[in-house]
Amino acid sequence: MSHEIIFWCVAALLILIACAFVVPALLGHSFFRTKGASAEETSRVLLAQQMESLKADLDAGLLDKAGYEASVEDVRRRALQDISEARGRTLGGKGAPVATALTVCVLMTVSVLGLYQWFGAAGSIDLFDSVQKGGIMRADGTLGLNDRAPGAAELKAFLETHPKDERAWVLYGRALAQSSDWQGAADAYEKAVSLGRFAGKDTDVLMEYGAATMNLRTEAAYKKAVEILTQAAVIDENNLRVQEFLAMAAFQAHDWKTARIALEFILTKADPNDPAYQSIAEAASQAARMERESRQK
């Protein structure tokens, strides 16, 4: 049995256990205790007892016939009123708890499975288990879990069966970037972002995506890198690393305005006593000059 099957079995069991506790709480009773008499049954029992008591009083001469009949009528009237109220409470309140319980159970199940599917499939367990060495504990007493990150080949094989796992695509892009396969890395990051989940909102992922694209060293790649890094800057404009990469990509793409804005922003955050401050200021001045010249053409 694979780790993924075990995972889903455990998840299903936990959901069933949760439902077993939620449903009784919402219905107002427990499946594990004896059901008591209803309010209607209680009223009927009390009516019978009161009628017997009145009959005993009549037989003992404590009540005359007129008083007995009046008392019986009064007891019956109050008993019928109690039974009617009990039925109203039962009919009026029974549907709501049941509907609420069923709704909560359905929403809980759908949300648990949906959120987990959104954040990542359980198949990742097998991926990281495949790179585990020496079990949980090695002979020297040290932990053997996650001795290394999955390699590009392992990630590629995993993605063939899990093409919508954005985390695996990001890891695949990083693995390819480490081996200087910039085209493959850029494609992997693009796939992760195109899934429209979290990678496209992660500044670090977008920065890595932009850097990999920029390393393709073509005019189109530089322009695309500017777009990617601009998106990252919108998410976190105070990220200086993003601004630095954006300035470099914009310089290569001859997007002087973007380069100038990024460099000027970096200057506002930099220490004037930093040796790199002067170089950044000169680059910003050059970008401003090239921007003016491009407008005059």
Could you characterize the architecture of this molecule?
- The protein has 297 residues and is mainly α.
- The chain folds into two domains: 3-119; 152-296, Serine Threonine Protein Phosphatase 5, Tetratricopeptide repeat, CATH 1.25.40.
- 74% of the residues lie in helices and 0% in strands.
- It has twelve helices and no strands.
- It is elongated and about 120 Å long.
Attribute tags:
single chain; 297 residues; 12 helices; 2 domains; mainly alpha; elongated
Q: Brief overview, please?
A:
By secondary structure, the chain is an all-alpha fold. The protein has helices spanning 3-27, 39-59, 65-119, 124-129, 152-161, 166-178, 182-194, 203-214, 219-235, 240-252, 256-269, 275-296. The protein is elongated and about 120 Å long.
Number of strands: 0
Mean pLDDT across residues:
79
Largest beta-sheet details: none
The first-to-last residue Cα distance is 70 Å
Overall body shape: elongated
Helix proportion of residues, in percent? over 70%
Provide the number of structural domains: 2
User: Which CATH-level-2 architecture of the largest domain?
Assistant: Alpha Horseshoe
Global structural class: mainly alpha
| Stretches with pLDDT under 50, minimum 5 residues | 30-37, 131-138
SSE sequence, one letter per element: HHHHHHHHHHHH
Assign the CATH class of the largest domain. Answer: Mainly Alpha
Total helices: the number is 12
CATH-defined superfamily of the largest domain: Tetratricopeptide repeat domain
